[in-house]
Amino acid sequence: MKILYYLSSGFSIIALGFYSLPWIYGTDSFALNLYIIAILWFLIAWIFLVIHFILGIRNFKNKKGKHNFISSLIILICYFILIIAIINDYIVLY
Predict the structure, then answer these.
(1) Is residue 63 part of a domain?
(2) pTM of the model
(3) What angle separates helix 63-87 from helix 7-19, to the nearest 10 degrees?
């Protein structure tokens, strides 16, 4: 099941969309709740990044390692986009 390798990276991509909802949808309670969910996801997603990277190093010769490396790369790109958004003041202060 190849989808299991990319589950955490898919959640990171969805969390990026949730993070940008207050600027697209408006600052009502629905958008702010999804914003908080995105922040909480990115507080724990680094654990999945490390796990995928370690599994990618262990299984580099077969396809499992390559899937883990691609998943860790997607999560890392999501973190870079999040950092760029925070630097450009895309942060909601209550």
Answers:
(1) yes
(2) 0.84
(3) 10
